[in-house]
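Posting here for the record, re: 6-O-phosphono-beta-D-fructofuranose.
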Amino acid sequence: MPRLLRFLLLLLCGLALITAVGYVALTRTTHRWFETDLRARSLFVVTATKQLLARNWEIGREGLVDALEDITRDERVMGAAACSLDGQRLAVTAAYPLDFGCRWVLARLSQEGEGTDPWTTTEELPGGRVHLSAITVTTEGKPLGRVLLVHDLSYLERREATTRNLLLVAFFVLSLGAATITMIAERLAFRVWTSELRRALSGEVTRDFKPLVGDVRALVERLASERDREARGGNWNPERLRSTLTTHLEGERVIILANREPYIHEKTPDGVKVLHPASGLVTALEPVMRACSGVWVAHGSGSADKQTSDARGHVKVPPGEESYSLRRVWLSDAEENGYYYGFSNEGLWPLCHVAHARPVFRAEDWEHYVRVNRKFADAVCEEVDTEDPIILVQDYHFALAPRMIRERLPRATILTFWHIPWPSAERIGICPWREEIISGLLGSSIVGFHTQQHCNNFIDAVDTFMESRIDREANAIVQGARRSLVRPYPISIEWPVHWLESLPSVGECRVSVRKELGLPADALLGVGIDRLDYTKGIEERLQAVDELLTRHPEFRGRFTFAQLAAPSRTKIARYRELNDRVEALADEINARWGKDDYRPIILLRSHHEPPTVFRYYRAAELCYVSSLHDGMNLVAKEFVAARDDELGVLVLSQFTGAARDLTEALIVNPYDLGQAGDALAAALRMPEDEQRERMCSMRRMVSEFNVYRWAGRMLVDAAELRRRERVSGRLSAPTVLTRAMG
Ligand code: F6P
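Prediction output follows.
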């Protein structure tokens, strides 16, 4: 129903209610008035004719009738009667209703009216209501008898009907007036509003519309450029990303700075092995690097990394299909402890995640963090070959690097992406080095987050702690001549996932995984894939399985949950304790529900390479992602990508960035164990039709909003920024530098 109609309906209901209440109140009051009026009137008539009546009382019936006829001359008086004190009728006028005889009145008087003079009552006759009064006639203080007067009340009903009609007319006129005025006011306000908005959109920004205009313009620009891009090439893919780089950025390579390397060389008893780390960052960025080429600068953390790199730490990757360079930076144990385990993962990680872990800030960790950021910034500068390179700085390990790079390369385009949530300004405020962190990030040309909420939080933090100007219309922070844009870029995964090319069919994966886990062929299987991290809600996940078995007995003995948990950051006590707690919890649940060979929880605590992970995704009935707080969570998107059979159900925490994109998942609050347990049951019972409908929709979303689009959008925005800066004269055409520059 249109808004205006709803409003009018409400208005009419309100007026009708007021009229009804008014009508009842008015009728009651007038009624009371009329009754008082009649009593007074009857008394007045009898008192006025008192002498006449007294005289005629002596004379007898004839004289009394005349006197009574005189009294009843008023058209509202129906009739009158004279009664002796003992109830004898002495005289009566012709129209007096005989229902109210002298004895009848005497009986009523003795029940209720003794002592009241005049005594009055309202009675119902077949011809309508009447008002009866009995007044004592006295002479020299001695009572002679009573006069009964009957008033016709039909005129009262007529008056009530007239009042009702008047009120109805008033209601009708008022309603009509109010509705007309409302409609005119609404039209006028709408006209003023639209003309103001039009003026605002055409550049004449009024104060009221300023924030709205900024949003509308940004939206229009984004939609236009998206449409333009779609028109030029459909979904994003590696070719389109490459051509974006060459057309928009004149073929420049990109340099990624990320702590985690995409390929780790490890010594094993069988020789050197290449491992793919369990990292959302690597999952997302490695395909981008393969598409674009360039250099990935990272910490060389593998035991065989040094022996597989050249003297300057370079190695060509991916192994066997070399297309870009990995530049490894070496860190001492002290540096790694202070910068990575200490400040990054005991300080910033719990600071940014609402998972109820207290951040630890140590001055010596901070010193390492500053030194290591400088070391990596230097390594990046060594890799550049122009004055205005494109550098993608990744994550919370490198909050200071953007400014450090900017100091050496003022013309660089630095795109920093923060892979974890950015919390409220209040929370950021507890970091002793909050200004340094924010200032470091503002060395970037663009600071990217997963969601608009994180962007807003970042802008609030800048507002609270920094000297700068915030351009809210452009979502930019201005410090002197430099501006940093703050933008949401929800990260994703490659599409199609290259690991799937060599994997067996879903049917084969179902059989092989069940065999591997020692499960019957028809067992129902759920999977969880994570680093063993307290933000992932692994304990809550296992408790939800416990809840499922408690509340839905039909799944006991039939449902198994396989948790693949990659050990992570084990030098930190909190991670080791989590490991122990998860193990104890799995044992406890298995003891409660296990029987013969059946164990509801299978905990696989080790690193699993992507082909194994994808086989598990394909084999499962459901995947449960229960993060307590997560910037995006790419496991959810990987599960969807793995299910080319279009079946399987994703149960997803509402506290992940992914929950905004994958709305067809069963979205749960992981802290609400009952709800999560029921969601697992619903997933296991879901008919295939519904599974397919949900999965197809999520697959469309992930395939369209893939990681090439994520990177492409950042690069296009970067290109646009460079173009503007060149036009405004701050940059010259790209200049090729010699390597000596670093
Ligand atoms: O979520 C932040 C992040 O850097 C991810 O990108 C990645 O999945 C994870 O942390 C990896 O952590 P680490 O590199 O410490 O193993």
